[in-house]
Amino acid sequence: MKVRLFLVVISLSSLLFLQTYCTNICQFIDGLKPDQLLRNLGFIFILHLVYRELLYFGFSNSWKNVSLPRQAYYLSMISWVLAGISAFILHASLYPDFPMGSHLKLFTSYIILGAGILSQLEYILFEMSYKKIAIEKQYTIFNEKLSQRILETFLIFTLAPIITLILIIGRYSFEGVIDKHVSMEILYMSTIMLVAAITLAIVFRNALKKDTKIIIENLQNIEDGNYRKTQTINRPDELGEISYSIKDMASSIEEGIEQVESLNEEIINTQKEIIYTMGEIAETRSKETGNHVKRVAEYSKILALKSGLGENEAEMLKLASPMHDIGKVGIPDNILNKPDKLTADEFEIMKTHASLGYEMLKHSNKKILQAAAIVSKEHHEKYNGEGYPNGLKGDEIHIYARITAVADVFDALGSDRVYKKKWDDKDIFEYLKKESGESFDPKLIDIFFENIDEILSFRDEHQD
Questions:
Q1: Which of 58, 126, 299, 369 is positioned for an S-S bond with 407, CB 3.0–4.6 A?
Q2: What are the residue ranges of helices labelled H in 116-179?
């Protein structure tokens, strides 16, 4: 409502200007009495208000890809054009003896003053008002160009006074008040200034368009992570300052990301060390070596890759598998390191290490520790369903646990323990083949032997 009232004031104040404008550009209109001209303009003023309200009501819904202020601006221009047409018709009806040029000059006044200058001022008013009433609104479609807006404003405020000046000179030249030679000189200079103004406006528009495009590209490069592709604009105004700030910001972001990546890599390496240390703690308690967990980790990654898991998943299993026996920290030493065969009761206690390890790790939201929890719980499950703690079988056992089981048993059989001497490779291979489909996934056993050379090579390089 405030905006509408302000528009009424603008339109009303324009009546006085229109009265002066019309009497200066046309001697026939100048011949009317002031009250006659003011009465005619007042009638058109009321019509103009009606046109504007009808347009606002008829086009109350937002146009596609057009901002609300821009839509109101277009409707304002249309209302002024309709008012000019109404003035043309009214004037031609009331004064049919006037020449057609007189009526056209009145129509031109509404186009120049109303649809041109006043609509531009109203556009600014619409934008200011919209910012206040639409605080929560955010533009997501940026299809209006600042360079185009500047070009429109520049041309309108250049053309309007020049055309007005030409019309006034034309009138007084026709009446003989001004010499025709002087009129031609003024018309010639006005044409040159008009061409120069249009040329400068287009050049300025293109330069501004090019520089704003660079700024947008800089922001896009930052969004895409191409921080070094940002470039500055060599101009000493706000656009140059913005471009410099964006480039400086890109450098700061890149430097910050490098620091974060370095810190993240350090954190990952620390996690790896902690994981291996935790695995070694479990192995040391059972008088096994730290190299066992390293070998199991590498065998697990080889089998994971060859069985079709991705590089990231295989690497995660490599990090998780060393903690397969972490639950042994909760097993008493007299059972864990007993050189003789365990009794039935002792074996039941030993079997709890799988569940103990799972309980220790399951609360973490880190993917590596989640994988370690699965491996810890299920690496003693057997493919035929006779394992522990839950008697899972076949594909019910997680692929991580099935892989770790093969890697762990292979390395454990080939290593000395308190309760046994290490086996020969021949005996280990025979055992693995015999247990294929029983204790172990037969597909993984096939993959194991298909890549035995790589596995043995790593084992030889990392002996206890």
A1: 299
A2: 119-133, 146-174
Distances (CA, A) of 387 to 135, 213, 236, 398: 65, 66, 77, 13
Distance CA 115, CA 242 (A): 34
Omega of the bond leading into 389 within 30 degrees of 0 (cis): yes
> 52 near 73, Cβ under 8 Å?
no
- What is the rounded distance in angstroms from the CA atom of residue 189 to the CA atom of residue 179? 16
Measured between alpha carbons, how far is 280 from 291 in angstroms, rounded to an integer?
Answer: 8
Identify which of 307, 446, 322, 315 has the alpha carbon closest to the alpha carbon of residue 372.
322
Helical ranges in 175-237 per DSSP H: 180-224
Q: What is the mean pLDDT of residues 297-321?
A: 92
Segment 176-181 long-range contacts (CB within 8 Å, at least 24 positions apart): none
> Residue 451: which pLDDT band, with cuts at 50, 70 and 90?
very high
Q: Identify the residue whose tokens are 């009265």.
A: 19
Region of 252 on the Ramachandran plot (φ > 0 left; ψ -120 to 50 alpha; else beta)? alpha
Spatial neighbors of 339 by CB under 8 A, at least 6 apart, are 418, 419
Backbone angles phi, psi at 97, to 5 degrees: -80, -10
Q: How far, CA to CA in Å, does 151 sit from each of 239, 248, 344? A: 17, 31, 93
Under 8 Å CB-to-CB from 395, ≥6 apart: which residues?
Answer: none
CB atoms within 10 A of CB 361: 24
DSSP assignment string, 251-266: HHHHHHHHHHHHHHHH
Comparison of pLDDT for 449 and 273, the residue scoring more: 449
User: CA torsion sign, 102 to 108 to 114 to 118?
Assistant: negative
Q: pTM of the predicted model, to two decimals?
A: 0.50
- Digit-coded pLDDT (tens) for 398-420: 999 999 999 999 998 988 776 67
The total of other beta-carbon atoms located within 10 Å of residue 125's CB is 19
For residues 179 and 229, the answer to whether their CB atoms sit within 8 Å is no
CA distances from 66 to 61, 132, 189 (A): 11, 19, 39
Q: What is the pLDDT of residues 347-365, one digit of tens each?
A: 899 999 899 989 988 888 8
What whole-number distance in Å separates Cα of residue 206 and Cα of residue 187?
Answer: 28
